[in-house]
Design goal:
- The complex is a heterodimer of chains A (about 425) and B (about 400).
- Chain A has 2 domains: about 100-290, Sulfite Oxidase, Chain A, domain 2 (Alpha-Beta Complex); about 300-420, Sandwich (Immunoglobulin-like).
- Chain A is built from 7 helices and 24 strands.
- Chain A has helices spanning about 15-25, 35-40, 135, 165-170, 185-190, 220, 390-395; strands at about 70, 80-85, 105, 120-125, 130, 140-150, 175-180, 200-205, 215-220, 225-230, 235, 245-250, 260-265, 280-285, 290, 300-305, 315-325, 330-335, 345, 350, 360-365, 370-380, 410, 420-424.
- In chain A, the strands form 6 sheets. Chain A has a 5-stranded mixed sheet with strand order 5-4-13-8-9. In chain A, strands 6, 7, 10, 11 and 12 form a 5-stranded antiparallel sheet that branches. Chain A has a 5-stranded antiparallel sheet with strand order 19-18-22-23-24, with no helix packed on it.
- Chain B has 3 domains: about 1-110; about 125-230, Orthogonal Bundle (Cytochrome Bc1 Complex, Chain D, domain 2); about 305-410, Orthogonal Bundle (Cytochrome Bc1 Complex, Chain D, domain 2), CATH 1.10.760.10.
- Helices cover about 45% and strands about 5% of the residues of chain B.
- In chain B, helix 6 crosses helix 9 (about 200-210).
- Chain B is mostly helical and about 400 residues long.
- The chains are: A mainly beta (about 425), B mainly alpha (about 400).
- Chains A and B meet through strand 1, strand 4, strand 5, helix 5 and strand 13 of A and strand 1, helix 5, helix 8, strand 4 and helix 10 of B.
Chain lengths: ~425, ~400
């Protein structure tokens, strides 16, 4: 933990540089003189563009080359057991494109082909079974949009404001439309008669990579909405997200969404694996730790303006936008404050969010050039209101790592530059 | 529509395609509009049918059947107001997919160990043996005494720190079950060579970890027989998630909208301790600079090698840093120090214990050339069968060249 808080000094000039560049570009259509972008014949309006054979599988245009996953090197010892962050500050809507959706590996992303893929269901079942990839495609499947959030998202912010950018404070999250077979279907194929009373049973799920990441999931959840997924956003999963098959555990810690899923074992107790004892547990002030903290509570963050997305257009109309989500179900409301939490306005939801999926919110407002302390506060269908950092600290102390769902504050100064701060 | 389609497909294919389209649309949308479109499709199909009679007749029949089906469904939806979406069906009995697993297969994959010791194989190992294995296979990352090297995990100590500001959570101070240590080490360690320990080695290592944590004496031997007798220091240190009682109850209230507090002050700013990575990137490929590897030596020693290539190699070398160090002050880790590799005898770094195949190459006086290095880095196990370098290899030729250029920039 102390390593995580080790500061490495870097200069902070990015914000102002971005402003300068933004201002020039934004005002090119100057008043009084006709815009050459319009009056002069442009190359692209005269010469032909790329042919259909040029890009069999397309990447974003080069002007978007800064919209990428980034990692924070000092966080971990090796990029093979590490994390990177979704550029949520630069995205809109709710679906995260696979190519920039955050990755977390414990032993690197592996190449496992569909042909080599096997899924075993064993333990307290009537018939231990092995499925191939082709078998999975023959079972009834479902489509669902869900967010996947690492329990450590915002974890670096427990002790204080640390990382300057929504990508780094809140980017261990992505939101995709999954296609897959309900885990209950596979468990039924193997038969749960041998498990007897299901109330106290578990499934232990395990990945095929060298870390053999494994987690115990109570049977009730396993039979509820857990999916064995093989497609995301309509196409095959990416290698870094568990190709060809990953587990989707809606609303629960990302670590449980085991990638390269190879085995599901029905057990009569939690395995107590490293990832559910040493990790993904939180020590509170008295030294006692909380375990089995599976659900990701309601949370939200303003993605723009934010430190990586300063206001470059000066005074006038301003769209404040952000994301909200809850592991307990749907987001019903998001409030935004411009004064650090003294007054709140209710934001507009882009569209009614799916359950356990990201919801986009907008506050269509104006900016008079005075400093703002921007905050957002999510409320979910259970009536849970996203807490402040102080509320969380009072409840849990400062030694926790995971499940920091506090209200985030961005300070926006007169120039539109935004900064990660904490307020009283 | 049909005209432009016919530009691309012969008439008969066109029929099939249209039918496919009609089906695709109808199965997605049950509104009246769909039915209109369907009717249009049927007309088009019928037009084509005149040209390709046999197929088209069948196709039109199928389309008519679909049309009828859709009408029925639409009527159903209109009367019941129900949505036609539904979860995957649950059936009586099974689909009969998947095949029964062999016992050997279950034995190979089902190796997890439960807190009560179920799943442990027979075996034993003592502290002395454990120390030897640990120093050989684990200490490069976790330190000789499991105290952790650099950013790598600490495995020992930290007792009575859990209530402190920065708790030190180790196998000794924090882990509630010994089974977790056995299971994790057996399956996931050493990092980069997971799954290679024998049961006896794992028992010995776990015995050594207990010793490093002052939990047993130096003559202790751990086995499947006495495993569950070991008492863990923090066995009672965990409570099951109590957010529902403590937090949800408190935070499910109507929130304040106005005059919610008396004023606001900024109490902390991220720019005071700026730990955010810099963002300047030229393209989607970042070329990160690493603090662990001194980039300085590069220019002078490069001897005519393209500095851009060396810089690219520095980026690519991050995948090697798990196991290798280069530059001044570099030490052997899981892999040997890689200074002055090109032109050097294979397997000749002082103090590193190589695999058999490396020892043989060394005895035969074989020397690393750019060619042999390229072959080795592309396919380590294919080129040096039995090597200890547990690394899949670098697929991209340009990346291999860059890596070699980077290594060449570090003379001995």
């Amino acid at each position: 933990m102390d390593e995580i808080f080790k500061p490495s000094r870097r200069t902070f000039l990015r914000g102002s540089a971005a402003i300068a560049a933004g201002t020039v570009a934004g005002q090119a259509a100057a008043q009084g003189t006709p815009d050459p972008m319009i009056t002069e014949l442009q190359d692209w309006a005269s010469y032909t563009g790329a042919g259909v054979d040029e890009t069999p599988y397309g990447l974003p245009i080069r002007f978007e080359s800064d919209v990428i996953r980034r990692n924070v090197e000092w966080l971990t010892a090796s990029p093979i057991s590490s994390i990177n962050f979704t550029p949520i500050h630069a995205l809109d809507g709710t679906i995260t494109p696979q190519g920039c959706a955050f990755e977390r590996h414990h032993s690197g992303a592996i190449e496992l082909s569909k042909d080599d893929y096997r899924l075993m269901i064993n333990g307290l079942v009537d018939r231990p079974l092995v499925f191939t990839y082709a078998d999975l495609e023959r079972l009834p499947r479902e489509n669902h949009v869900y967010f996947c959030e690492c329990a450590a998202n915002t974890g670096m912010e427990w002790a204080g404001a640390q990382l300057n950018g929504a990508q780094f404070t809140h980017g261990m999250i992505h939101n995709m439309e999954y296609t897959g077979v309900p885990l209950r279907t596979l468990l039924r194929e193997a038969g749960l008669g041998a498990a007897g009373d299901l109330a106290d049973k578990w499934v232990y799920v395990e990945g095929a990579d060298a870390s053999s990441n494994g987690r115990s999931i109570p049977m009730e959840k396993a039979l509820d909405d857990v999916l064995v997924a093989f497609k995301a956003n309509g196409e095959a999963l990416r290698m870094e997200h568990g190709y060809p098959v990953r587990l989707v555990v809606p609303g629960w810690e990302g670590n449980m969404w085991v990638k390269w899923l190879r085995r599901v074992e029905v057990t009569d107790m939690a395995v107590g694996s490293r990832e559910e004892t040493s990790k993904y547990t939180d020590v509170y002030e008295n030294g006692i730790a909380r375990k089995w903290t599976w659900v990701m509570d309601a949370k939200s963050v303003i993605t723009s303006p934010s430190p990586q997305m300063p206001i470059t257009h000066g005074q006038g109309p301003l769209v404040i936008s952000g994301l909200a989500w809850s592991g307990h179900g749907q987001i019903t409301r998001v409030d935004v404050s411009k004064d650090g939490g003294v007054t709140w306005e209710t934001a507009r939801l882009g569209k009614q969010g799916d359950t356990k999926a990201l919801t986009r919110f907008y506050l269509d407002t104006g900016w008079d050039g005075s400093p703002m302390l921007l905050q957002s506060r999510a409320i979910d269908e259970t009536g849970y209101v996203q807490p402040t950092k102080n509320q969380l600290r009072e409840m849990r102390g400062e030694n926790a790592v995971y499940h920091n769902n506090c209200i985030q504050t961005w300070f926006v100064n007169e120039e539109g530059v935004a900064e990660n701060v904490e307020v009283s | 529509m049909s005209k432009s389609l016919n530009l691309f497909v012969p008439a008969i294919g066109g029929t099939a395609l249209l039918l496919g389209l009609a089906y695709g649309i109808s199965s997605r949308d049950y509104g009246a509009a769909t039915i209109d479109t369907l009717e249009a499709r049927v007309q088009q199909i019928e037009a084509n049918a005149a040209q390709a009679s046999a197929q088209a007749q069948a196709a039109a029949a199928e389309a008519a059947r679909l049309l009828q089906e859709r009408e029925e469904l639409a009527a159903l939806a209109a009367t019941s107001g129900a949505s036609l979406t539904a979860p995957a069906p649950v059936i009586e009995g099974t689909y009969g997919l998947g095949r029964v697993a062999f016992d050997e297969e279950i034995a190979a994959w089902d190796v997890d160990v439960l807190p009560d010791g179920r799943g442990l194989p027979e075996g034993r190992g003592d502290v002395y043996t454990g120390e030897e294995v640990f120093v050989d296979k684990c200490a490069s990352c976790h330190g000789d005494f499991a105290e952790g090297v650099g950013n790598w995990p600490v495995l020992a100590g930290g007792f009575d720190t859990l209530a402190n500001r920065d708790p030190v959570k180790t196998v000794g101070s924090y882990w509630p079950y010994l089974s977790t240590a056995w299971d994790y080490i057996n399956r996931s360690m050493p990092f980069g060579e997971a799954g290679t320990l024998t049961p006896d080695e794992t028992y010995a290592i776990v015995a050594y970890l207990l010793y490093s944590n002052n939990m047993v004496d130096d003559d202790f031997e751990l086995s499947h027989e006495n495993f569950t007798d070991v008492e863990m220091y923090n066995a009672d240190g965990f409570v099951v998630d109590d957010r529902p009682e403590l937090e949800y109850a408190a935070w499910r209230t109507e929130p304040c909208m106005e005059n919610c507090k008396d004023g606001v002050e900024i109490t902390m700013r991220a720019t005071f301790l700026d730990v955010t990575p810099d963002e300047e990137v030229e393209a989607a490929v970042s070329t990160p600079t690493s603090e662990a590897t001194p980039a300085v030596a590069v220019a002078e020693d490069a001897g005519g090698i393209d500095p851009a290539l060396i810089a690219a190699g520095e980026g690519a070398f991050r995948q090697c840093q798990t196991c290798h160090q280069v530059g001044e002050g570099a030490r052997n880790r899981t892999g040997p120090v890689l200074n002055g590799m090109v032109g050097q005898t294979i397997g000749s770094v002082d103090g590193f214990r190589y695999s058999g195949v490396f020892e043989q190459a060394n005895a035969a006086g074989e020397v690393w050339t750019t060619e042999s290095l390229a072959a080795f880095l592309t396919d380590p196990r294919g080129t040096m069968a039995g090597t200890k370098m547990a690394f899949r290899g670098v697929g991209d030729e340009a990346e291999v060249a860059a890596l070699i250029a980077y290594l060449q920039s570090f003379a001995d």
